[in-house]
Amino acid sequence: MSDRRNTYRAVLAEAREAELRVGRRCLLVSIVEESAGGLCASAADAPQFASGVEGELTTEDGDCLRVEVMHLENFNGTYRIGMRRLNADLRGRRMRGARSTSPLLLLVGLTIGLYAGFAAQVEPVRDCLATVPTLSRILYRF
Predict the structure, then answer these.
(1) Residue 14 CB: number of other CB atoms within 10 A?
(2) Is 2 inside a domain boundary?
(3) Does residue 93 sit within a domain?
(4) Are both 17 and 72 inside the same structural domain?
(5) Range of the domain at 111
(6) Domain shared by 107 and 76, yes or no
(7) Which of 18, 66, 107, 108 could share a disulfide with 86, CB 3.0–4.6 Å?
(8) What pLDDT, on the 0 to 100 scale, is given for residue 135?
(9) pLDDT by residue (tens digit) across 20-44?
């Protein structure tokens, strides 16, 4: 396997706090870098697991990701953990208060909002346009 990366790694301006759970062990981490295929986190405590194990990473904003620990390194007193995403999101495992970003739900909400907005404006607009003689015949014909 090549040492060259296939994806761009973005260094986060502000670290995101998360909890990495591997088996029964839990480790508080800060996500410092992300890429399309994975992420890198740092931890103050030493991890009690080896690379190659699978776990769940739950962020403070409710995202729950299935990850595989790929790399462990002690870097200036903190531990760097390189992880690969196994799937984007574990549905049903979100924390309370996390918002849904499903495209279908967004489309349904937008459609309902548009219809409600149009229905609220129909009568006042129709009454205002009815004062124009030509438009009044067109509007009240239907």
Answers:
(1) 7
(2) no
(3) no
(4) yes
(5) 103-139
(6) no
(7) 66
(8) 64
(9) 999 888 899 988 888 778 888 888 8
